[in-house]
Specification:
heterotrimer; A mainly alpha (about 500); B mainly alpha (about 130); C mainly alpha (about 475); A: about 500 residues; mainly alpha; two-stranded antiparallel sheet; 22 helices; about 75% helix; C: about 475 residues; 2 strands
């Protein structure tokens, strides 16, 4: 039994959440069972990821190559769990505390038991899709997983019954599908000139063929960058994100901002480095464009976040800014910068989940939505606000929190690439981040509180917040193993030729 | 000149695909009507499907079914068509979901025009209930 | 080693304990606060003795590829001792000043944690640790600035945070560049940067100056300091006359001696500019001070002016200049704290916050005003106060370093200091006393007065017996030259 599991591990990590998702709908009446099973599904996924990580990292099989249905590449679909795959699979583990937070907490936001069950189904589909994005090595498989993720994300956004949610979901759906169509177009062009859908084979063929057809390659690269850019909320393609992430229920916002956006970025990285490769990127100056857009995104996203009165919209624009950091890092083309970007990706996933969940708890308890109405929350809901504070300090990039490590390596990487403007953008982003997050903390702790009673959320919610906040601090104080994993992943990506 | 014309004649599926893609994208981004946006998406996706399927075609080729033709025949590439079956399924799902959302919006706002929805947003339901259900 | 760890953690542990105790248990809280600051002070002196005896205390940890270490050297010891000793005095003073005021628990908790942060800055052994504690210091002193919770206080707090965080961001860039160019970040083993591109190094020096210059209140980065005077007087005295601003000054001293080194700095064009910026700050600061009516603001601008004395001395790149800078650090800290303490007593007992209203105060509060007068002499730089020796060596260093106009600036600044405060003292004693009922009796005033008088006595002692502090100064100069 164990050998069977071990042999098929990469696909099982993807399938486990999907399988659980499909058995949930008939059980809709027994909501406790649904919630427990959903949590179990996510935990199984994380457990499998951990097991896979241990196999890959102890060099027993690095990378772990798995052929779906036994069909060898390039005819079959190949799953490759190398350092990058394992890295992102572990990051997807953030879905477990978020799911823990959702236990018993969704009815108020989403509705009756039927709707809550559908929420869990979509959630698990999203988790499965992202696990798939981590390990897949086939371009069309990427498209399929991206579509699964998109539909689940849109479904999650539309979970609330308010018409604003439907509007946000519709805009998100249209723009995201636009992005998918662009990506599919790019994949089509690559297939046209290389004849392969497997990323490794396509890369080899592309390196032989691109000189004869530079326009096609440039077109394909543009379509893929723009397509994934729309989905990952790269500036200026981010317009759907603030509405979508602020009208979704809190666990959905947490996973959308924290993980879904990152999944698309990982796919983008796989295409850029795994199919095109550093030489082609430099040839077409794609990396400079990425760094530029990333830098502009950081500044504009942060400034827009400053102008938002609603807490969740502020956090949503913050995500746009943070995605800018990641894109900036992806364009640096050196191991330090790329490792910094990957570590920052993991750090932001944990931090954003913490922030959105804490914000959701506060908004649900107080009934208010704006930042200035949250005066005194820190004293009434200490655990929630402590988690929010830790998340904010991590996002600003103070030492001892995870954000600092990522920013340090991004700065070092931008210096190695010989660029000074990205460094300035990164630091300006930190100061702006302090400007839009510290007032929330200040109002929460230092302003007088009204007389109402605002209780801390229940035990599963508190546990989820504590786990996530602890992760922010642990990644900041002992980043060693995870950082090494990021560095190995970066080295593998850059050594593709 | 004749070289260019020959190229155009040979590659007309791709040109049509590009044209459809442009029409579709333009429709999605500029029309305020929700249905038209959805139609734009569908046109865009049809363009992509056309591009893929056309890439698998070989002039004078036959369908790759074993045992029905002689050994000399050239088979066309079935892979893109198979991939696009998946793509069509995805497109159908997206359309279904979008239509459901349009119905929800129509019930709430009474219109399928985005401009009028934006105008009515404040009137219909106040944002106070946004956090409940 | 144990002393080092305990000195550093006493603040944090004490702060957490205070935060955990219910707000009503004032006596227990006071005991906790006194215990932890007292033991922190004693441990700092123990650490100092070990370092002066030549021992090397190093405590290192890994932060994911970055080393972070504590490694006190004579310069750090000087700063650490100033901070630790004065923190204890401030705490005693606070017990009197803050009695009956609101939000005491927050006040003492953050005061203690800021203590740890300051010692962390002082005892740090590399730029990473310095940066970490530097940022921590900003964050932990913010609640102290907004203690009053008035709109004015909140505005001052926002300004404080923005200036300091922006400075820290610039500092981070400078540190990353140092890591990229120098390859290491430790302070031990000579200056980090050797030779290199001259333009790049000039820019690096500029970044460091801006980064540390915010806290060191270099013109034009000083604007947060007068605004922060809205904080309670003990906070103004300790943090904004000594601890926080000294963290900036200490940072710049580190830049001069541990990052660049005097030889390299001598070759950089920008380094020749800085003494003039410092001189400008000295003069402009004290001139603006004379125009301030609110006493604490006058003291704030005087602080800005006097801090640049230290920077002036450091950038002469001469051992006498460094000796002067260190002497000034020690002497000025003691006296300025006492100065602010006096202002606090005056404000609390008579309600007077403006210089124009200080006529006759000396008749009601004689001991306070005598202390005020003695400290004023010190600020001018006259014997028998310790600051005389600091100024003496600063002037010697300026001339030896080839920048004799700086000595003139120092003399001029002394004269303006006199103009700024001597009339205030004279009027306080000479004018009619309109407040006959105010006295200096009572537990509260005693708690405030005793530390003040003790500090004045120490200042006098340092002036009359400079041999007391000279070994510490000598140790610093020997370490770097």
């Amino acid at each position: 039994m164990t050998t069977l599991i071990r042999a098929n591990l990469p696909v099982l990590v993807v399938i486990a959440p999907l399988f659980v998702a499909f058995i949930l709908p008939p059980l809709a009446r027994r909501i406790r069972l649904v919630e427990a099973l959903a949590l179990l599904g996510a935990v199984l996924g994380l457990g499998g990821a951990g097991y896979l990580a241990s196999i890959v990292l102890t060099q027993q099989e690095n990378p772990f190559i798995y052929q779906l249905g036994g069909w060898p590449a390039p005819w079959g679909i190949e799953l490759v769990a190398g350092s990058l795959g394992v890295f992102f699979l572990l990051v997807v583990g953030v879905s477990v505390p978020v799911l823990l937070f959702a236990q018993g907490n969704l009815a108020a936001e989403v509705g009756d038991a039927e709707r809550v069950t559908r929420f869990y189904v979509l959630y698990l589909l999203l988790v499965g899709a992202m696990a798939g994005m981590a390990v897949t090595n086939d371009m069309f498989n990427v498209y399929v997983l991206v579509e699964v993720a998109t539909l689940s994300c849109c479904g999650l956004v539309s979970a609330r019954r308010h018409p604003r949610a439907a509007e946000a979901a519709f805009t998100y759906l249209i723009l995201a599908t636009l992005g998918s169509a662009l990506v599919l177009g790019g994949i089509g062009l690559i297939y046209l000139i290389t004849g392969h859908l497997n990323m490794g084979f396509a890369a080899q063929e592309l390196s032989r063929v691109w000189l004869a057809r530079p326009h096609v390659v440039l077109m394909a690269a543009s379509l893929i960058v723009v397509g994934f850019g729309v989905k990952a909320a790269l500036f200026p393609l981010h317009v759907w994100l603030p509405d979508a992430h602020s009208t979704a229920p809190s666990p959905a916002s947490a996973i959308l901002s924290g993980l879904a956006v990152k999944g698309y970025l990982i796919c983008l990285v796989k295409f850029l480095y795994g199919v095109f490769g550093p030489t082609l990127l430099q040839e077409f100056a794609v990396h400079r464009i990425l760094t530029l857009l990333g830098g502009v995104g950081i500044i504009t996203g942060s400034i827009l976040a400053l102008t938002q009165e609603e807490l969740k919209r502020r956090l949503a624009y913050s995500t746009v800014a943070q995605v800018g950091y990641l894109i900036l890092g992806f364009g640096l083309l050196n191991v330090t910068g790329l490792a910094g970007a990957l570590f920052y990706l993991a750090s932001h996933a944990v931090i954003k989940a913490t922030l959105f969940l804490a914000a959701g708890a506060m908004l649900a308890a107080t009934g208010k939505r704006n930042v200035r109405d949250l005066a005194g929350v820190g004293r009434k809901m200490p655990i929630t606000m402590a988690a929010f504070t830790i998340g904010s300090l991590g996002l600003i990039g103070l030492p001892l929190f995870s954000g600092f490590i990522g920013k340090w390596y991004l700065l070092l990487g931008s210096w190695e690439a010989g660029l000074i403007l990205p460094a300035v953008a990164i630091l300006a982003g930190s100061v702006l981040c302090a400007a839009y997050l510290l007032p929330v903390i200040r109002a929460a702790y230092f302003a007088p509180a009204p007389e109402e009673d605002w209780p801390d959320p229940g035990r599963p919610q508190k546990l989820a917040l504590l786990l996530l906040a602890a992760a922010v601090v642990i990644l900041g104080v002992r980043p060693g193993p995870f950082l090494e994993l990021a560095q190995k992943a970066a080295a593998e990506l850059l050594a593709f030729y | 000149m004749s070289g260019l014309l020959t190229k155009v004649l040979i590659n007309y599926p791709y040109l049509v695909a590009v044209l459809l893609f442009t029409i579709g994208t333009f429709t999605v981004l500029t029309h305020p009507n929700l249905f038209k946006k959805l139609l734009g998406i569908n046109i865009m996706e049809s363009a992509i499907f056309l591009m893929f399927v056309a890439s698998g075609n070989i002039r004078g080729g036959v369908a790759p079914i074993r045992g029905t033709t002689n050994a000399e025949a050239v088979y066309i590439n079935p892979l893109p068509s198979a991939l696009m079956l998946t793509g069509i399924v995805v497109s159908v799902s997206v359309s279904a979901f979008a239509l459901a959302l349009i119905m929800r919006l129509y019930k709430a706002y009474g219109t399928t025009d985005l401009r009028r929805i934006a105008a009515r947003r404040k009137e219909v339901i106040s944002d106070d209930h946004l956090d409940q259900g | 080693m144990l002393a080092l760890v305990f000195a550093l953690s006493s603040g944090i542990i004490g702060g957490l304990l205070v935060a955990a105790l219910p707000a009503a248990r004032t006596r227990l809280r006071n005991m906790v606060v006194l215990f932890f600051t007292g033991s922190g002070m004693i441990c700092s002196w123990l650490v100092a003795r070990q370092v002066w005896a030549g021992e090397r205390l190093r405590f290192a940890g890994q932060l994911g590829g970055l080393t972070f270490c504590l490694d006190p050297d004579p310069l750090g010891i000087v700063f650490g001792l100033i901070a630790a000793t004065l923190w204890f005095f401030t705490v005693v003073y606070s017990l009197g000043y803050m009695a009956g005021k609101a939000h005491q628990r927050t006040y003492y908790a953050f005061l203690l944690v800021a203590f740890s942060a300051t010692l962390g800055v002082a005892f740090s052994g590399n730029l990473v640790a310095l940066y970490l504690f530097y940022e921590l210091l900003t964050l932990t002193t913010y609640p102290l600035v907004i203690q009053e919770r008035s709109p004015e206080a909140m505005q001052a707090g926002t300004k404080y945070l923005l200036y300091n965080l922006a400075g820290a961001a610039v500092l981070l860039l400078a540190i990353v560049l140092t890591a990229a160019w120098g390859g290491r970040l430790d302070f031990v083993g000579g200056p980090i940067l050797a030779a290199g591109l001259k333009t790049g190094l000039n820019w690096l020096l500029f970044l460091f100056t801006v980064g540390f210059g915010v806290k060191a209140a270099l013109l034009p980065l000083h604007r947060w300091l007068p605004a922060a005077m809205v904080a309670p007087t003990p906070v103004s005295a300790l943090l904004h006359a000594v601890a926080v601003v000294y963290a900036g000054v200490y940072g710049l001293l580190r830049v001069v001696y541990s990052v660049f080194g005097t030889t390299l700095l001598g070759e950089l064009g920008f380094a020749a500019l800085i003494p003039w910026v410092a001189a400008g700050t000295v003069l402009v600061g004290i001139i603006v001070a004379t125009q301030q009516d609110i006493l604490k603001r006058r003291l704030a601008y005087q602080t800005i002016s006097h801090l640049s004395y230290i920077l002036l001395g450091a950038f002469t790149l001469h051992p006498w200049g460094l000796a002067g800078a260190v002497l000034q650090m020690i002497g000025y800290a003691v006296l300025k704290t006492a100065f602010f303490f006096c202002a606090g007593i005056i404000a609390e007992q008579t309600g007077v916050t403006r210089v124009s209203q200080m006529g006759g105060v000396g008749r009601s509060l004689p001991k306070t005003m005598v202390a005020f007068a003695v400290v004023t002499l010190g600020m001018i730089g006259m014997l028998p106060l310790g600051t005389f020796w600091g100024k003496f060596y600063l002037m010697k260093g300026s001339v030896a370093g080839g920048k004799w106009p700086l000595a003139l600036v120092l003399i001029g600044s002394g004269i303006i200091n006199a103009v700024c405060f001597i009339p205030v003292v004279v009027r306080a004693f000479r004018d009619e006393n309109k407040r006959l009922s105010i006295t200096e009796r009572g537990v509260r005033v005693t708690l405030m007065l005793v530390p003040t008088m003790l500090l004045v006595v120490i200042g006098l002692g340092m002036g009359l017996f400079p041999g007391m502090v000279w070994p510490a100064v000598q140790a610093v100069v020997d370490w770097f030259f």
